[in-house]
Please model this.
Amino acid sequence: MTADESTMTPGVQADQPSADAIDESTKATPTKQPSAAITVSDEPTVRYDVSLLTKDDLYLFNEGSHFHLYEKLGAHPMIVGGVEGVYFAVWAPNADRVAVMGDFNHWNRESHDLRARDLSGVWEGFIPKLSKGAVYKYYIHSRYHGYRVEKSDPFANYFEVPPKSASVVWDQDYVWNDSHWLQTRGQRNQLNAPISIYEVHLGSWMRNPEDNHCWLSYRELAPLLADYVNRTGFTHIELLPVMEHPFFGSWGYQSLGYFAPSSRFGTPQDFMYLVDYLHQHDIGVILDWVPSHFPTDQHGLGYFDGTHLYEHADPRKGFHPDWGSFIFNYGRDEVRSFLMSSAFYWLDRFHIDGLRVDAVASMLYLNYSRKEGEWIPNEYGGNENLEAIYFLRRFNEEIYKKYPDVQTFAEESTAWPMVSRPVYLGGLGFGLKWDMGWMHDTLMYAHRDPIHRHYHHNEMTFRMLYAFNENFVLPISHDEVVHGKGALLDKMPGSVEDRFANLRAVLSYMFAQPAKKLLFMGCEFGQWREWNHDESLDWHLLEFPSHQGVQRLVGDLNRLYRSEPALHELDCEPDGFMWIDANDADNSSYSFIRMGRSTNDIILAVFNFTPMLRRNHRIGVPRCGYWREILNSDAHEYWGFGYGNMGGVDASPLPSHDRPCSINITLPPLGAVFFKNEG
Model:
């Protein structure tokens, strides 16, 4: 996430109450909500003899080792002694009183007090005659300075639709039908498997065709997404954060509901249905997850019990200057339990296949986006956040221990070493890391006029110096098509025809490179406009052959990537790649070999990043025989000019590029051609 990607909710101030302040705004009038639909009868108002928390739970929570707190804290409908009710539990160690208020008691702060559980900091109680659908908040009276506030439930699994902010009592009942997917997903998520990710923002991928201001629900999106992703050949989708967030303009990156899919699109069961449906159609689901920061909205986690409970108290460690948000206190045991439980929750209850951790660099560096004097060195005088490092390593260790068939992804934009290497070797333990350097260099090169590209030839070759230091994903993500950066197609220079050809060549280069792939929605058909989170993608563009051609090419690239072991099997190993010619700067041409584990799996990729047609372009190859042309980005079906090689070429025993044989090919202008050796 970039520094300008997400801002504080409008009207919410970042400043917190001073040490001697009383929150008059929450002291005055209770939150206005609908009239009570549920009433408490002559049963005891609150029962304190009911608890889901054992002594072991409390010990593990306070130790930082409880990873299933969603089973214990929050609101849980249950039947006790034949009486239906809801058990509530919330962590507020610095409160001297906690009450549940909601539509069931006319938002009365005085009638339903919880009781402190020993010295654990947890307040709990069972309210009879309460059921699923009740709307509630916690009223917290701090023992410090008379601070009083209404808070949403940090462990709520459902919320009112924003801008309302109360929590909703809900259950997790759902009958899953994705057993076949779960049995096979380990093979689909391996580093030697084809992983091609379609990055999606649910609120703007596609909207109601009759009203562009109306979102589609999780259930409405399910068949549309599944059909589209299968037609375009992607193996996984990655969803921008679906966790509940107050400000839609943050795209979900200012999360507050760490255990709740956004109610904007439906219930938790509706989101389960979406994941289930995608799994049944052989599509993996990766979620963006944001443990790096959270917004300052008063009903949220910040200053929860009159103290800086979840965040660092010192703003030099606890407040993010770029995003106007709080930073988690990774050194606090209970905060680590909270975050770990959130990660486990999505994998456990929603069958998620991977978590992409946002803004990892901001977690690793104490001086991230801070000037001298605005940060506190660690105990050794360095800028490394030792507590965050410990948390990330524990996060990856525990996830892969419990869910060895999923993947974790790091959005890490620096040269921090061994991000995707095991913890026992000194790494952070992620499965894969976004290659932000490749993204920056490639798009910088693609933006240049072809006449100048030979001066910047190394921008396309540089990544191969580090390509196997990590397990990489090549991302062309949402960050690259917003805030005045222009849409991917709009970044390309030249005439309309040249722009489309450039785009097809860049996408082909991406799929030929060793690494997993990620492409943001709209890029796969060449949307002209920047992405707007408040509007649907411009699907009408697919009425034009030019945009159909890009979409068709992406589909064919995906299918080729999935079907050819040479293009995916050794994505993360140096044995899978070999340059043929990395130094043809005069022609802005590149050629390399991709190989699989079998000696028969060899594919040659050749690229021309100038608008000049190159006939009789000789390329050295490692063996003679017939080389079949398996993809040409200039083909007519992709809206190209159709320059090609008549299906393939025979290699002659004429050495070139230090190879024993060579082929003489036609290299299309601003084009890419792939050949497969068939002996």
Remarks:
- Residues 1-42 have pLDDT under 50 and may be disordered.
- The longest strand covers residues 83-91.
- The domain at 574-677 is CATH 2.60.40.1180 (Immunoglobulin-like).
